[in-house]
Amino acid sequence: MIGFRYEVGGDWLNYIEHFKITSHLRFSEVFGKGDPGHYFVNWAVARLGGDVQWVNLLYGSVLMWGTVMFCRKQPWPWLALLVAVPYLLIVVGMGYSRQAMALGFALVGLAALGEHRVRAFVVCIALGALFHKSAVLLLPIAVLANSRNRFLTAGMVGATFVLLYFLLLAEDADALWTNYVEYQMQSQGAKIRVLMNAVPALLMLLYGKRLAPDRQERRLWTIIALLALLCLPLVSLASTAVDRVALYLIPLQLFVFARIPLLAGTNIRMRTGLVLGVIGYYAAVQFVWLNFATHAQYWLPYQFRLFG
Question: Whole-angstrom Cα distance, residue 39 to residue 31?
Answer without folding.
Answer: 7
